[in-house]
Amino acid sequence: MATSESLNIHDFGTAIDKKKIRVQCNFCAKVVSGFFRLKCHLGGVRKDVVPCEKVPENVKESFFYMLQERKRENLSNEVGKLCQPDLPGKRNWCPAPNVVKQFKCEPSQTAGYGSKKQLELDSEAEDNVAEHIPVPNKRLDSKITIDGDASAWQAKKNIGRFFYETGIDFSAANSPSFKRMLNETLGNDQEIPTFQELKGWILQDEMKEMQEYVKSIRHSWATTGCSILLDGWVNEKGQYLVSFVVECPEGPIYLHSADVSAIINNVGALQLLLDRVLEEVGIENVVQIVACSATGWMRTVGKKFMEKHKAVFWSVSTSHCIELILEKIVTLDGIRGIVDKAKIITKFIYRHGEILKLMRNHTQSYDLIKPSKVKFAVPFLTLENIVSEKENLKSMFMSSEWKTSVWASTPEGVTVAHLIEDLAFWTGAEITMKATVPLLRVLCLVAEADKPQVGYIYETMDQAKETIKEGFKNKKSQYIAFWKIIDGIWDTHLHSPLHAAGYYLNPSLFYSTDFYSDPEVAFGLLCCIIRMVPNHHIQELISVQLDEYRHARGAYKEGRAIDKRTSIPPAQWWSVYGKQHPELQKFAIRILSQTCDGALRYGLKRSLAEKLLMKGRNHVEQQRLNDLAYVHYNMHLQNRKRGVKSGVVAEEIDPMDDWVVDRALETLPRNGGSEWTEADCFEATENVE
C-alpha cells in the first residue's frame, strides 16, 4: 500500500480554474470544491462528499488514513489536551461545550485556493473535519474573476480561443518567445494563460459558449430540417474514421467523430451507429444523409439505410460525383494521357527559375497554375490555362531566348518543346476542355455557394450537359460518350428524389420559360411527398395546394411574389409567399433548405479527430480532448458561416506540392545552367499563391 507521505493530491486531480476553486478527479471526473475535498472524495470518509467509485483501493486506503491522522492532529491542537489521558480504551475528546471554534488551515491545504480562509469546527460533530467553504460551480464571468480585472479575464479567453481555433499544442503557452511576443505587443503587464488554465476553466468556458451557439442552431431544425454529412477517411495506421457534421441554413455544426475500423465489415453495427446519430439529431429533423464516397462501407450501409429509413434520403456528395465523372473522362481515347503531358510541361517550367521567368515574359506574368479549394480540380484548371496560353507558349519555345538557353538541349527540354509543337496534344487538350470545363463550373458553383443548392443541382447538371453538347457543335458522335459517363454517375450515385422535387419547387426555375417537367421530375416530387409526409390527409392537401402553385394562383400571382422569384433564395420565397398553404410551405422549405455537397467542402483538419480517436487515455484526458475537438471544429464551421477564413485549415490546395515541384529544391539544374535558388523558389510560390 502506498504510504500517505508518498501521495501528492495534485497527482490525482486537475484544477479547472485559476484559483483551484474547482478540482476534477482524474479517476471519475467528478468536480469538487478544492483539493481538500478531493482527498475526502478519494478517501471516502466524508458524509457530504460523494466517495469515488473508481479510485484504486490502495490510494483510497492511503487518503483515508491520511485524513484520520489529520483529524486527530487538528482536534488535538484545538483542545490542547485530553480530559482523561490515562483512561484506557477509546479516547474521549472534551472540547468546551456549545462553543464553535475557528482556526486557520495549514498553508499546504490553502495553497490550492489562492488565499487562506477561516474554517469552522463544530464541537458537537466529531465526523466533521475542517473543510474549505464551498464555492458554487458557475461560469467565471464577473469582473472579480481574475484579480478584479475583467479585461485580463477577457484577454486570457481571447488567447485561449486562438489556441482552440488553430489547434496549437497548449505547451506553446510556456514558450518564452510566445510570452515575449504578447508582452511586446500588449504590454508587460499582460497576463498570459497557463497550460493548466488552457486545459481548465478557459476551455470549459468556451465549451459552454459553443454549446449555446449549437443550441441556437438546433432550434431551427424543426422548421428547415437538416442534412447529416459524413466525412470518412483511412488514416496512416489503416483505421477507418468518420466525422459527423450537421448542415442547415443557419450554419453547419460538428457532432463528433468515430472509429469504425472494428465494425467496417459489419453492416448491422454500422447501421446502429447511424441510428444513434439520427437519434442524437432527432430523426424527425433529418431530411437526408450525404456521404463523401460512393464506394466502400458508405455504399454498403447506404443501401441498407434506405431500406430501413424511408423518410430520410441517402445521397452522395456532388463534388465527389463530379470527381468520379472526371476520372472516367480522362480514360477515354483521345484524352488519355493529356493531363499527364500537361503536368510534364508545368513541372519543367516551374522547376527552373530561368524558364519560369521566360514563360512569364511571354504570358505577361500570367501563371499556368492556380490554387484551388478542390485538389482534384487543379490538373484540369491548369490544363485550361495552358490551352488559353497556347500561342504564347508556342512563341516562347520558338524564341531566341529559349533556343540559346542551356535547357533547350537537355532531354527534358527537348521533350517539352516537342509537346508544345505536337498538334495531337493540343487537339486532345481542347477536347478535354470542352468536356470538363462545364463540370468544373458546376463544381465551383457547389463548393463556393453560400446557400443551399438542392433546388438548383438538377438544372445545373442539365445545363452542363447542354454546354458540352454545344461545345461539340451538337454532333452526337462526339458528345455522347461524355453524356453516358455523366448519366451513369448521376443515375447510380448522385441523383436523389430531393433534387427533382427541389427543381420543381424552385420558383425561379419552375416559372421560367424553359422549365421541363419530365417523368423523372414528377416521380421525384411524388416520392418526396410520400416519404416525407406520413399523414395521408396532409399528402392530399399538398397535392391540392401544388395545383395552386402550378397555376400561380392566389398569393403566388401577386406582383412582389413574381418579382422575388429570382432575387431571393427559394426557401425564403416560400417562407414569405407560401403562408396561404402551410402544408405545402413546410414541405417546400424543408426540401429547399438542404445542401447537395458533403463535409469535405469545409476542410476540417482530420489530425485532431485522429488524435481524439486514439486509445489509452484516462477518462479525464479523453473528455478534455472531446471538448477541445468540439470547440475547435465548431469554431472553424462558425467562421466559415460568417465568411471568415480561419487560416489554419487550408482554404486552397497548394499546387506546388503535388502538381509541380516534387522535391524541386533537391533537383539542381544540369549542364552548367543557372541554379534554382531559394529566392527563385520563394518568388514562384508567391506568384502561384
From TrEMBL:
Domain DUF659 stretches: 193-345
Pfam hit, one: DUF659
Transmembrane segments: none
Identification of the protein by name: DUF659 domain-containing protein
The organism of origin for this protein: Manihot esculenta
